[in-house]
């Protein structure tokens, strides 16, 4: 069975939800611990949402230097699928696995809502099960989700098809309406919305989180 | 013991929502014509002698951890 590691940092909030989503998708969830550099032989890694290390210094800045991230960075560079959700996206940016950075929302408020997105790239490890251009709804909840990058970085992301999700109705001032991006190879994806909250009809208004895990299963089956 | 100050500021072209909120609050309090940008100040106590090499090490630390140079710029100086 495909084994998906979910990292818990001090201050992670959505690690349990991410693990549950992995199981609901029919995959095995493996807990990983920030202070250990072991990835326990997993096939993929999820960096969950929350407030790792209390968001001290900058969101994700301290988590990026935790022992587990040394292993995650090596594995990601070797091609292992890695998904960063919300705080996990911030950690990926701080790790330089993805370009750019998040600043406080332009409206200065914490945003918590069902957010419409357009899937812009379906050639990644986490989005290949979506139809190109699909419009989906995923929970968004953050105070610092305003994606920014230098103009030449934004141009590079646009030109190389690495903008994976765009907001339909920009909720936070993100440059180019960017909600999620990938690395060059497409195995590392980060996004601010929370697909792990859109997997169970009892509590979610859409099940648009499930294709993330179906995509992963498909890409690992091909490997 | 030497003390080194590292100032970290959002880059001029990057929106500073915190600074904007403070600017708005000042105006409401009647402090007119003041535009604020908000950053961070780190005071670093350095054990032993502060050599050029040590200062260079602190610059490297600032670039590695204290500032994210995608969105922030930093300045390192010795506290007189």
Automatic annotation (TrEMBL), chain A:
EC annotation from Swiss-Prot or TrEMBL: 6.3.5.3, 3.5.1.2
GO BP terms in the entry: 'de novo' IMP biosynthetic process
CDD domains: GATase1_FGAR_AT
UniProt-listed InterPro entries: Class_I_gatase-like (IPR029062), PRibForGlyAmidine_synth_PurQ (IPR010075)
Pathway in which the depicted protein is active: Purine metabolism; IMP biosynthesis via de novo pathway; 5-amino-1-(5-phospho-D-ribosyl)imidazole from N(2)-formyl-N(1)-(5-phospho-D-ribosyl)glycinamide: step 1/2
Compartment(s) where it occurs, according to its Swiss-Prot or TrEMBL record: Cytoplasm
SMART domains (alphabetical): GATase_5
This protein's UniProt keywords: ATP-binding, Cytoplasm, Glutamine amidotransferase, Hydrolase, Ligase, Nucleotide-binding, Purine biosynthesis
Keyword presence, ATP-binding: yes
GO CC terms in record: cytoplasm
Gene Ontology MF term list: ATP binding; glutaminase activity; phosphoribosylformylglycinamidine synthase activity
Reaction(s) this enzyme catalyzes, per UniProt: N(2)-formyl-N(1)-(5-phospho-beta-D-ribosyl)glycinamide + L-glutamine + ATP + H2O = 2-formamido-N(1)-(5-O-phospho-beta-D-ribosyl)acetamidine + L-glutamate + ADP + phosphate + H(+); L-glutamine + H2O = L-glutamate + NH4(+)
Coiled coil, from the record: none
Pfam families noted in UniProt: GATase_5
Active site (UniProt): 86 (nucleophile), 194, 196
Known function: Part of the phosphoribosylformylglycinamidine synthase complex involved in the purines biosynthetic pathway. Catalyzes the ATP-dependent conversion of formylglycinamide ribonucleotide (FGAR) and glutamine to yield formylglycinamidine ribonucleotide (FGAM) and glutamate. The FGAM synthase complex is composed of three subunits. PurQ produces an ammonia molecule by converting glutamine to glutamate. PurL transfers the ammonia molecule to FGAR to form FGAM in an ATP-dependent manner.
Record note on quaternary structure: Part of the FGAM synthase complex composed of 1 PurL, 1 PurQ and 2 PurS subunits.
Protein name from the UniProt record: Phosphoribosylformylglycinamidine synthase subunit PurQ
Organism field: Propioniciclava tarda
Gene of this entry: purQ
């Amino acid at each position: 069975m495909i084994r998906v590691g979910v990292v818990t940092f001090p201050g992670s909030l959505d690690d349990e939800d991410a693990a549950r989503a992995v199981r609901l998708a029919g995959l095995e969830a493996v807990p990983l611990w920030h202070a250990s550099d072991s990835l326990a032989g997993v096939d993929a890694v999820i960096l969950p949402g929350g407030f790792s290390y209390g968001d001290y210094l900058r969101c994700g800045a301290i988590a990026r230097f935790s022992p587990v991230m040394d292993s995650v960075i090596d594995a990601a560079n070797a091609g292992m699928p890695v998904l960063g959700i919300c705080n996990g996206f911030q950690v990926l940016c701080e790790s330089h696995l993805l370009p750019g950075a998040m600043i406080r929302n332009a409206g200065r408020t914490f945003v918590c809502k069902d957010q419409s997105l357009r899937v812009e790239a379906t050639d990644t490890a986490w989005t290949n099960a979506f139809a190109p251009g699909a419009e989906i709804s995923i929970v968004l909840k953050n105070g610092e989700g305003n994606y920014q990058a230098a103009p030449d970085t934004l141009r590079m992301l646009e030109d190389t098809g690495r903008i994976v999700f765009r907001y339909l109705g920009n909720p936070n001032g993100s440059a180019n309406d960017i909600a999620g991006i990938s690395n060059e190879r497409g195995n590392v994806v980060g996004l601010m919305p929370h697909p792990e909250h859109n997997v169970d009809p009892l509590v979610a208004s859409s099940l648009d989180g499930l294709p993330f895990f179906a995509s992963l299963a498909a890409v690992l089956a091909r490997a | 013991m030497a003390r080194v100050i590292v100032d970290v500021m959002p880059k001029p072209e990057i929106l500073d929502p915190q600074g904007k909120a403070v600017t708005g609050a000042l105006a409401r309090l009647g402090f007119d014509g003041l535009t604020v940008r908000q950053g961070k100040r780190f005071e670093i106590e350095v054990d032993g002698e502060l050599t050029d090499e040590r200062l260079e090490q602190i610059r490297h630390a600032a670039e590695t951890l204290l500032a994210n140079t995608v969105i922030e710029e930093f300045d390192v100086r010795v506290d007189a």
